[in-house]
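Batch 3, record 17
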Amino acid sequence: MDVLRTEFTLNDMPIEVTLPVRATLADAIRSTGATGTRVGCEEGICGSCTVLLDGRPARACLMLAAQARGREIRTVEGLAAGGRLHPVQESFRRHRALQCGYCTPGFMMLAVGLLEREPNASPERVRAVLASNLCRCTGYAPIVDAVLAAQQALAGEVI
Amino acid sequence: MAVVRGHVGAEAPRADDLPLVDGSAMFIADLNRDGQLWARVVRSPVASAVIVGIEISAAVRHPGVAAVLTADDVPDVQIPIRLPFAATPECELALQPPLARDRVRYVGEPVAVVLAEDPFTAEDAAELVALELEERTPVLDLRAGSGADSVHDRLPDNVVNRVPMVCGEVDRLFATAEVVVSESVVVHRHTGMPLETRGLLAEWEEGEGRLTVWGAAKVKHFNRQALAQMLDLSPQSVRLIEVSVGGAFGVRGEFYPEDLLVPLAAMRLGRPVKWIEDRREHLVATNHAREQLHELEVAASEDGRLLAFRDRAWCDQGAYVRSQGLLPALLPALQIAGPYAWEGFSIEASAVLTNRTPVGTYRAPGVTEATLVRERALDRVAAELGLDHVELRRRNLIAADRMPWVFDLGPQGEPIVYESGDFPGSFEALLAQAGYDDLRAEQRGRAPGGEAVGIGVSAFCEVSAVGPFEQARIALEDGRFAVYVGVGSVGQGVATVLGQIAAETLGVGLERVAIHHQDTADTPEGFGTFASRSTVLAGNAILLAGQDLRRKAAAALGIAEDTLDVDLEYARLAPQRLTGEGTFEKEHPSFTFGANLVLVSVDRELGRVRVERHLVAHDAGRAVNPALLRGQLCGGAVQGIGAVLFEELRYDRTGQPEVSSLEDYLLATAGDVPAVEAVIIENPAPTNPLGIKGSGEAGMAGAPAAVANAVADALGAGAESLALPLTPARIRALVRARELNAQPEAS
Amino acid sequence: MRPAPFAYERVESVEEMLEALARADGEGAAVLLAGGQSLIPRLNARLVRPRRVIDIDGIAALDHLELDQELRVGALCRHWRLEEATSLDGPWAALREAAAHVGLHPVRTRGTFGGSLAHADPAAELPLAAVTYGAEIELRSRAGQRRVAAEEFFRGPHRTALGPGEAIVGARFPSPKPDGVSAFAEVSRRVVGWPLAAVCVVLHAAEGVIQGARVGLGAVGPAPRRAIEAERLLEGSALESSAIDAAAVAAARACAPAVADGVDEDTRRDMVEALVRRTLAGLAGAVW
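Prediction for the assembled complex:
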């Protein structure tokens, strides 16, 4: 089977993977042991595999591993820093924004991407962006609450 | 250290969240074993055919392929029925073999399995398996009867069984009724659709004669038993392990063909075998649910008293009777009476075979369908009588002082018993929380602006806390109180709730308790996680085990039990290897009450429905963790909204599924649903010491009915049949029909 | 769900892309991969099985968005750039709104303008905008360059005027009158997902009278189309409610919807009529 070597940055670490040319970015990330990027549909609909690609949320299942060459990828494993959870992670716990937890990393990356680029996003904007991913357990309200609360927490940190 | 109380009823944080938010949690796809092969299932591309031949030679020759298995390579076994009360001799005639022999009966039926070095190769080679099929006319009509082809030759009329139930003098009640309303409802096919697909990893250790299977959920002890039997192993040599589970909702964790095929392949090839279902497979391979047709007649008196009903139902089993037996037909029959003081009823539910994916249980099975049918019909009764639909229900809910309530099913049937609850009081609590009178005023106020606003209600009684028993064992291990139970965690937070009960019983802090439920090797035999039973059954077993441990500890230390602080004495107790044991037996299931109230607005021109408010009330008996309970109720309600507005597993006339990905199977998003409001009622259950009633499914049970009623109310279509789901096309058709009727006669 | 085997080739320039296309043996054997948001789902599901995938994702020269006398959009312009281009207002607002409706937020990170045109889904937003604005699609092959009017480019569901060896390099949108207004609207089953009907409207008025009108309809036929009769009814009107109603009815008549996604023709026409009426009513305030 044809394989290809690809280099990219994963959570600030240079990564080199050799994978079949058919492998997706999700395969590439997961092959490094960072399995928090979860695969739920492989067609870009569910959003469980959402990562940050050069700072913007993207579906890791809708990109060949080869296309990640030279790009900066951030995943759930890169959120916590210095032994402390990211405010979005804290907020998801506090607001009970997860039950089975399968969609959680994708939702958190979606939220982090939004809040970093649009710290003042309106609640309507937050809800509209969160409509990009699917959760089957929570009914969404706790997720929306968690992201809005995290937005407040992040604003507090900046000041 | 003081004895710690007050855990039960507290909003304790979930025990298992951290690995889920930092990404380190291990789901089945994250597990690998050295030297593993990947399995890919070859599935039937047609709904009904005779298998003339299966040509595997090209696949076997494909580089990287270790083996291809067909029916000839697997034992001649069938997937057994898990619940004895849902099995009949006729069911045995329609059980599913792990790989199709001679016939394929639905699109997606496993025909062969390819084992290869990697998932790419496995999928490539699976395409090389050539099936020679002689197609038959598929059976797709629920009422096809004996005129059609047969799904199974030994059941020529495509009916597995008919489930009859009779209570009271139905014909007499109908004869005396002033109002009789007929309602025909087709509940559409949809299903659980957890975000994580199924998956398994199996390893056979030849030397030890030991088989380990990761990826279990729901009913791991039954599955171990079934697997051991099929493979001719002792149950003790088979170990099933539950890892993180990405949602189950009733569909994940039952015994499916792959649950035999993957372990079997691992044994045959002497290498670990991994299988991860993909989403397109999931849509045809994992249990479907809900599809049934009901013809319901309701008899009422002029003053709005419900007298009796007759229900005839045709319940789709799909192409095989799977591990849940007749539940698709039994459960609606058991729950269609609901919380009302009927004087009589008669039910005949037929379990019907069709050439579609087999049907199993999806969260709140039977009660969701039955509630939809009954509550639609009740709105028609209300319309007929000119009665507010809330008022109709008020007049007929079983009064609290008539508990326990018994529907006597005669000498043949076990009676339906509602053991406790205050249905009218709970219903009023819902109305008060919603501000029902204000909502009616709002509805009237918005009407002049052209807005179609509707209010819908539904009430139900849900069977839950099904026995026969659960066991718990508590040991002093690794510095903590290790609690072993046989139920499963499927993402609902059961470990947290059971931990609260254990900590409360032992009188220790939450952090001192560890709940173990994952591994059949060290957990007591259990019946699993379904029918809102885990907290009730395992919780009470833990209560008994905790009491047992305290008793033994007090005796061992020679002190009075009421002065014992087990945590303070941990160091003295641990070396004595004390264990507390508890078995909670429950002969009869319990029925719980719930109700929904929904406010919708309908865009008449675009045919779109917006659910503006959704309230769900549920009598939980006692809320062990109100926050987690709200999570269950609200999450379930959103599934119910999605079910009635968006989700549908359609088939075309040849039996091909028309929905093959999440692009077509529409799950509600954050933008489509309101923040659901939960109203928790606590009327303790008299039949278990903790007073808990099952709650995992109540959010779903009445949601589709309430939304459908609200939409009908908005459109002034209270007395019309609704086709489901409520798509824009169907809403537009209703609006157009009403506009046409409203036009003056052409001169 | 893994793609069928293919050979992978990454190209860095338009010339390399055209060379690679020409080398690929015959029609259908090779596909261009840009953002992949439509292609990779179909690859993963093995609904397309190219022998060769030519990855053009990194051709920097095609990733541009320039607005002066006209608007030039490169084939690799990502949807988010159009969505966030605040300079696209007034007569351009509908294009920006169309881009904001494409797929899902994370899909717009990767999805490309050229990819959307080439995929030619009858319900897609950017092809509808291209048709409404009268854009010209720029095609290149080793043999040369040509421009095709958007209305000619879309030939049917997933069928375009692209010939063998040819690739989209961008599109030119002629500038509408600067004081024009525009809007885009669509209806779908949920708040996200493919539209069941979509409309794109660009108007130019002088002294309260519509001088020029463009009304485009999506998801209501094999390809996006303009509602010429509706445009004619609007031109010369003051966008009063009778003119709006007439245009909406005419637009509904102009579509030839197929029965798809469980939506019948009548419902789709109803949707077009309501969307056109609402969109025009929303613009009426801006015109006066």
